Amino acid sequence: MQLDYFQLIDRIVDLNLDDKKITVEAQVPAAHTIFEGHFPGYPIMPGVLLTEAMAQSSGWLLLGVMKFERMPFLAMVKEAKMRGFVSPGDLLTIDAKIEHEGSGFAVTSAKVRVGKELKCSADLTFRHIPFPHPDLRVHMDAMANKIGFPLQAITND
Amino acid sequence: MSSTFDQIANIIAETCDIPRDTIKPESHAIDDLGIDSLDFLDIAFAIDKAFGIKMPLEKWTQEVNDGKATTEQYFVLQNLADRIDELVAAKNAAPGA
Lengths: 157, 97
Prior knowledge:
The complex is a heterodimer of chains A (157) and B (97).
Chain A (H helix, E strand, L loop, with lengths): L10 E6 L4 E7 L5 H5 L9 H19 L4 E13 L8 E11 L3 E10 L2 E14 L3 H13 L11
Antiparallel strand pairs in A: 1-2, 2-4, 3-6, 4-5, 5-6
Chain B lengths: L3 H13 L20 H15 L5 H9 L5 H5 L1 H17 L4
Keywords (chain A): Lyase
GO molecular function (chain A): lyase activity
InterPro entries (chain A): FabA_FabZ, HotDog_dom_sf
């Protein structure tokens, strides 16, 4: 997890395009300036960043389903529930699945666990559009490689 | 069984917190009801689920942007209901339906 670059996902553990599900892992840093303010003496991962982690997990799933032809952008967060504290150094396991594929939008649900403990969940809506700039596509390709996106999953049909 | 319009109106009332009795067949979703594009995503999601279809929002938007259609054709609610009925009929007529 590189919080300064808003890169919250470390690796893709499983991607199932038939079932439209993804599992990823994200290691919360043991130390970061964020934890100095949130909160002094009691550092916890901000809920907005956990929500963003769920959004990025869903985003990678949608990129796979759309074969990297379109880019999803977070549009709506519903039913976001912070069920337990996430601490520095925790390893997050994030599951996301597609609930609906509409025209130009998609809806996912996502959950964050630490070990077996459910920490948060949300329903997320994304708009998706053709990549708006070639640099973004290049960046996403590089990130896909970095986090172990199984590119063969989108080329083997 | 309620009409397609009634189902749409109920969805809009619930999704956008608009009083049901102000939603008429001749209401324009954008101009009269003030529904913005984000709220319309919610409405589209609910309509897709309720009717088992995929409203072609991108195609409709493109047609409006290209001047091949007017917003009234898709966003006046009775017209939207008619489009939905067409989509449901097409789905039911498709092989394997």
